[in-house]
Amino acid sequence: MKKFILLLLVFGTLISCTNSSKNPSTEAIIQNGNLEQLKAQHAKVLVSYDSISTILAQLEKAIAEKDSTKKYALVTSYTVLDTTFTSHISIQGSVETSENILIYPEYQGILAKLYVKEGQKVSQGQLLAKIDDGGLSSQLAQLESQYQLAKTTYDRQKRLWEQNIGSEIQYLQAKTNMESSKNAVNQLQSQLEKTNITAPFSGVVDDIITEQGQVVAPGMQAVMRLVNLDRMYVKASVPENYLPSITKGARVDIYFPALNKTVQGSINTIGNYINPSNRTFEIKVNVPNENNSIKPNLMGTMDIVNYTSENALVIPANAILENVKGQKFVFLIDKIDTEKGKAIQTEIKTGNSQNGMVEVVSGLTKESVIVNDGALTIKDGETITLKPNN
């Protein structure tokens, strides 16, 4: 209080000195027109103005310290720290497998035998079903007998021809008959093999579509569905603006809501074609399926890491404001004491954002303290009250 009274006395003394009757007034000096007096009076007034400004500032500070009724905007602060910053893309995708097929018959006839059941695991090449051959086996046996006779005749003619016995035409006829019989046997064997339905790859018989005893034919109803759940992947369409940030081998977390399960995979394939109808490209992400819980056509949300920065400066998004020119800024806090500070408007440039946090690429440094909550209610240079952070 004594300091406050002393400042008031000094202020009053300066005013009284300025208006003292011992010194000519400014009006009198102007009327006199003496250049030296005018300059001297100008310098005296400037000194008095500077002194008064200093005293006013001191008075305002003293009043602010003593006036408990004075209220300042209440804000919270945030200290900028460097950290590893990553941003993600969330895309919906569906599970597919490269080995998920319907098996169709290649021969027309009655489905004579089914050797497997639904849910059964099978190996590549394993016999799954048999179609009645309609007498092809008997025909093959007859053709094989004819071939053996033709081969015996040819071998005999060949030995005679090598001994210069017999004619060349007899030798060539025997050779032609043997080759013709062999081709007939091979052709019928190939046709007979089509009556056997075998597994093209190892997997699980997912569905038996045609029952034993039904007539089957090529291109008609499928016999069964075979699925391999070991080689699963999730396929998704990604907007073209993410093309520069999607890289092969990037980590992907996939959440399956139906299973309440998250698995980790990596981008295996990036499409080379932009779909003109929706401006997207396709990616495929291989996923592990240890207990076969992941099924084809299951929907999943893919969380793809598309950006990582070490030692990044990150601040809350709600602390960032924007002026009419589109320039982004925050309020730095110049602390007066532990409870009050001055807000200083500072322009910044930002990078990527994720989960309410934004990367700052310029304008701030590590350990900068900025206004967090309450930035919308203050202006540049305003005194603020700092609310303790919880």
Write structural notes for this entry.
With 390 residues, the protein is of the alpha+beta class. The chain contains 5 helices and 22 strands. It has helices at residues 2-18, 26-32, 35-66, 136-162, 168-193; strands at 73-79, 81-97, 100-103, 109-114, 121-122, 127-131, 196-198, 203-208, 215-216, 224-227, 232-239, 251-256, 261-270, 280-287, 299-316, 321-322, 328-335, 340-347, 349-354, 357-362, 369-371, 383-387. The strands form 4 sheets. It has a 6-stranded mixed β-sheet with strand order 16-17-18-22-1-21, with no helix packed on it. The protein has a 6-stranded antiparallel β-barrel with strand order 2-11-14-13-12-15. A 4-stranded antiparallel β-sheet has the order 3-10-8-5, with no helix packed on it. Strand 16 and strand 17 form a beta hairpin. Helix 1 packs antiparallel against helix 3 and helix 4 runs antiparallel to helix 5 (168-193). The chain starts with a helix and ends with a strand.
